[in-house]
């Protein structure tokens, strides 16, 4: 067999304004070029401590059990469900977005019995419906999505939801993949037992090391399991030995990804987490004003608007695919279409982390207006651009 003739790596230079990944800060890219050391090197053990402390700051928690899971956000999600859910546990999951279905599958694979609490796609869970589901099913574990990437809806009333669960002695798992570092999140104050996220959204690091935090109550349930979790790689009772005080070998950590996450979290701390939340609200507000000025609608109501992921209804006269392709081919801008029940109905426009900058928003909205006009949508492009500029 001849050796393959493969040229140099030359991917296009995109502006990433979709549901993730987001643009990576130059400092994070530079951090990935620093010298590689071993995963048990004393210098790397110090870096691990720093990453954990920075994650606690970003999650707004004092949880000891706060680590980056080796893998993408789905790995931290599976670590949460695969460890906390034991065979025979009843697990309550939502049906109001694509990722509720993924939670259900992971819970089932962990041996859980899945029941659901319903809400339309694009709407949050209502506390009264969650309370009714608890009264009916008495679940052991309750999972919800704080920022639903598939619908652009933010879940309000989180403390009320966690209170309902804890009144029934259940554990709460929060999906904060599209909110950590970009939308207000207070793990301790809101009494969340487990929260998991990803690096490539509002933190603006490459995927590969995904944040996870658990309080003592949740970790004690895991350590007291009768059966080991089905995944050895994601077994938190074993990972505790590596990320805890012992620093004993479990697997080779993705060292370069940890470097990147550390630098991304340093940027969060330097900006200040509350300032960062405000920047996302203000900058994404220009996208919201711009699309509404054009005559378009966002999928969720204003009360549930998610600044980090703007779900915009596709107007008559165009399809989502042709607009997405136009932006990619003519402007090197990435946005995405809908998933599941909203496939073909919405554009998903991210405004996360390093992508959440006024110059990016101005570039995106100008290109978006051009794409819609060129392809025949009935929009008022000038009004949209003016509204966007007024906010910026």
How would you explain this protein's 3D organization?
It is a single chain. Helix 4 links the parallel strand 3 and strand 4 (113-117). Helix 2 (42-59) crosses helix 9 and helix 9 (255-271) crosses helix 10. The chain is globular, with a radius of gyration of 21 Å. The chain has 13 helices and 14 strands. It is α/β, with parallel strands linked by helices. Helices cover 42% and strands 15% of the residues. The chain starts with 14 loop residues before the first strand and ends with a helix. It has 2 domains: 26-270, 3-Layer(aba) Sandwich (Aspartate Aminotransferase, domain 2); 273-391, Aspartate Aminotransferase, domain 1. A 7-stranded mixed beta sheet has the order 2-10-9-8-5-3-4, with helices on both faces. It has a 3-stranded antiparallel beta sheet with strand order 11-14-13, with helices on one face. The protein has helices spanning 26-31, 42-59, 73-84, 98-109, 127-137, 158-167, 216-223, 236-243, 255-271, 273-293, 320-331, 358-375, 381-391, and strands spanning 15-16, 65-71, 90-94, 113-117, 141-145, 147-148, 153-154, 171-175, 194-196, 208-214, 309-313, 333-334, 336-337, 346-350.
């Amino acid at each position: 067999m001849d050796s393959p003739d493969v040229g140099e790596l030359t991917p296009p230079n995109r502006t990433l304004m979709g549901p993730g990944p987001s643009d990576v800060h130059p400092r994070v890219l530079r951090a990935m070029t620093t010298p590689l050391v071993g995963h048990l090197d004393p210098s790397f053990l110090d870096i691990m401590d720093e990453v954990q402390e920075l994650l606690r700051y970003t999650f707004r928690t004092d949880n000891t059990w706060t680590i980056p899971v080796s893998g993408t956000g789905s790995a931290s999600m599976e670590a949460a469900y695969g460890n906390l859910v034991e065979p025979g546990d009843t697990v309550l999951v939502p049906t109001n977005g694509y990722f509720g279905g993924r939670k259900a599958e992971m819970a089932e694979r962990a041996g859980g019995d899945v029941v659901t609490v319903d809400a339309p796609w694009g709407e949050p869970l209502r506390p009264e419906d969650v309370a009714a589901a608890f009264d009916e099913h008495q679940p052991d574990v309750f999972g919800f999505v704080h920022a639903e990437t598939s619908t652009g809806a933010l879940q309000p009333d989180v403390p009320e939801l966690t209170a309902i669960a804890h009144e029934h002695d259940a554990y709460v798992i929060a999906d904060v993949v599209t909110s950590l570092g970009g939308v207000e999140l207070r793990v301790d104050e809101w009494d969340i037992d487990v929260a998991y996220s990803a690096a490539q959204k509002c933190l603006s690091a490459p995927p590969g090391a995904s944040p996870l935090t658990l309080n003592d109550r949740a970790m004690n349930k895991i350590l007291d399991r009768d059966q080991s979790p089905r995944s050895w790689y994601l077994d938190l009772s074993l990972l505790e030995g590596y990320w805890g005080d012992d620093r004993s070998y479990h697997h080779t950590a993705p060292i370069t990804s940890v470097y990147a996450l550390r630098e991304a979290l340093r940027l969060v701390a330097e900006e200040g987490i509350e300032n960062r939340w405000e920047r996302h609200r203000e900058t994404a507000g220009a996208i919201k004003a711009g699309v509404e000025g054009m005559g378009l609608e966002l999928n969720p109501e204003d009360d549930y608007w998610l600044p980090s992921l703007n779900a915009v209804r596709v107007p008559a006269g165009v399809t989502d695919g042709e607009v997405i392709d136009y932006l990619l081919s003519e402007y090197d801008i990435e946005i995405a279409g809908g998933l599941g029940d909203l496939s073909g109905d919405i554009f998903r426009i991210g405004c996360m982390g390093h992508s959440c900058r006024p110059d990016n928003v101005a570039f995106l909205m100008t290109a978006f207006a051009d794409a819609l006009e060129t392809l025949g949508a009935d929009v008022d492009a000038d009004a949209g651009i003016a509204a966007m500029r007024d906010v910026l």
